[in-house]
Amino acid sequence: MDRKYAQFAVDQTMKLLSIDSPSGYTDKAAGWVLDEFLSLGFDAKLTRKGGVLVDLGGEDMEDGLFLEAHCDTLGAMITDIKGNGRPKVTNLGGMRAENAEAENVRVYTRDGRVYEGTLQLANASVHVNSAYGDTKRTFANMEVVLDEDVKNAGETRALGIEVGDIVCFDPRSVVTEKGYIKSRFLDDKLSVGILMGYAKYLKDNNITPKRRVYVHVTVYEEVGHGGSASVPQGVTEAISVDMGCVGDGLSCTEKTVSICAKDSGGPYSYNVVTKLINAAKKEGAQYAVDIYPHYGSDVEATLRAGYDIRHGLIGAGVYASHGYERSHIDGVLNTLKVIKGYTEV
Questions:
Q1: Of 271, 263, 262, whose CA–CA distance to 238 is shortest?
Q2: What is the pLDDT of residues 135-172, one digit of tens each?
Q3: CA-closest candidate to residue 13, choices 342, 299, 326, 298
Q4: Exactly one of 36, 143, 221, 222 is catalytic; which is it?
Q5: Helices (H), 93-219
């Protein structure tokens, strides 16, 4: 696997990160993903649920492999507009108030207008609020400070802002000279980029996999049901390509690919995990086998929906999950190596 495909994956990731797409507001991101797979020459279509289903080709259609990643992210939704004109929000997915505080946001109205602002603790000035440091951060005591001259709820509503409008957080995406990728929402837009890198590898080298390979880019993973539908006939195995966890008690780093043996939903298929490890060894990928204490994946939603398949989970190592995340191009390359090796088994 040439490093240029890892670079392509990172470049595609950066483009996707620029498109706001919290769960429930993913049409633009999914449309971009669809167009990119079509431009690579693959059969791709939107599902009714709003995801993207791609056929990468392959010979054995009775032993299909289903690769899942998701382009929906964390975010927020307006629940109320306070008397001072500042919206209150509820989180979409696992966004935490502590990680959202002081982040720049965009508010999308139903009629297509976009307003900028910042999510702040109510009464956020340290020089005014003597309880600032002791206040537990929750969405109940946060507010969106709009970059508009509004002083009451009526003035905010006059802008077209209402309950149910989507609030998106600035990802602040950068790639450093040393190859580190830093951004919100690498979970899981980095994996979508990786699957695009794998698709480009197949196309550039005119490779037809031995088994049929499908990609499903889902749009409701962060709320638990992204991978619960759209499995093509003949699929026997599904692998979530999601972030690998980096933290205390785990072996994964941002430069490795993580192979998950068990998470909060229980163990992954022993057979699939073993084959993933063997694929990593075969391709010379730097990898770690880990157990994630607080994690759930698309492929677990697939199994809970009743599909009779074997399942696995891999991903490039990501630090500070659900916060300001960090990975590395080496982790991207190692993940690509495992996908390549697995599809050649």
A1: 271
A2: 999 999 999 999 999 999 999 999 999 999 999 999 99
A3: 326
A4: 221
A5: 97-100, 153-158, 186-204
Is residue 287 within 8 A of residue 257, CB to CB? The reply is: yes
Yes or no: say if 335 and 257 are a contact pair by the CB < 8 Å rule: yes
Whole-Å CA distances, 144 to 12, 124, 152:
30, 11, 13
Task: Tokens for 166, please give them.
Answer: 């989507």
13-29 residue pLDDT tens: 999 999 999 999 999 99
In terms of phi and psi (left: phi > 0; alpha: psi -120 to 50; beta: otherwise), the region of 55 is beta
Query: What type of residue sits at position 292?
Result: Y
Residue 197 makes CB contacts below 8 A (sequence gap 6+) with 5, 6, 8, 9, 12, 332, 336
From the list 329, 313, 236, 251, the residue with the least C-alpha distance to 276 is 313
Residues 58, 311: Cα–Cα separation, whole Å: 19
To the query of whether residue 221 is one of the catalytic residues in this protein, the response is yes
Provide the residue type at 100 as one letter. A
Percentage of residues in the chain having pLDDT higher than 70: 100
